[in-house]
Design goal:
binds nickel (II) ion; mainly beta; Jelly Rolls; globular; single chain; three-stranded antiparallel β-sheet
Length: 193
């Protein structure tokens, strides 16, 4: 009988991550235009343009239909003005492709939005699995005071369209700090699709 092969995939160990096929980092300077408070952003940019705001480690075996991409996203805590750190956000280039995010640690939100501007929020705490339905724009927001770490999984042929958010000058709602917690605030510059 032949010996079994070790299965590929991500392995989370106390020393870190094994098995990833890629990694990317987003620094503060990469997030220009994302936050509503341009003055607060400029002030932080002067001091910490190179600071990594979030990074993603992924296992991407292929981009074939039927395959899956799995990864771990780590989003640092902090704010720009009143607004919490967040990822750029996107809709899948193939709009009907779905995704799950399993919160491993931290406190955050999966902020979602339909094409006609309906906001949908799942609060992320350790153990919560957020489901991103078809045709939903989505981004993570860290509303806590430690790293927000999520494990995500989505179809390998999904692709990402980031411009859909830029074209509407942001998502419909900002997530801002209030009284030690968070609340949604209408984005006054929002352009309906
Ligand atoms: Ni996605």
């Amino acid at each position: 009988m032949s010996e079994p092969l070790p299965g590929p995939g991500l392995v989370i160990t106390p020393e870190g991550l094994r098995g990833r096929t890629g990694r990317y980092e987003k620094r503060l300077s990469d997030l220009d235009g994302l936050f509503a408070d341009a003055e607060a952003f400029a002030a932080r940019l002067e001091r910490e343009a190179d600071r990594v705001i979030y990074h993603v480690d992924e296992f991407r075996p292929s981009t074939e239909t039927g395959d899956l991409i799995t990864g771990i996203s780590t989003l640092s805590p902090g704010r720009v003005g009143a607004e919490f750190h967040m990822t750029r956000g996107h809709i899948h280039a193939k709009h009907d492709r779905t995704e799950i995010y399993h919160c491993l640690s931290g406190h955050g939100l999966m902020l979602m939005e339909t094409l006609d501007g309906q906001t949908v929020v799942t609060e992320l705490r350790p153990g919560v699995v957020a489901y991103v339905p078809p045709v939903h724009i989505h981004r993570s927001v860290n509303v806590g005071d430690e790293d927000l770490v999520t494990l995500f999984c989505y179809p390998a042929d999904a692709g990402q369209d980031y411009e859909i958010i830029a074209r509407s000058r942001g998502m419909r709602h900002h997530v801002v700090a209030e009284a030690g917690g968070w609340r949604l605030e209408e984005n006054p510059g929002y352009v309906p699709r």
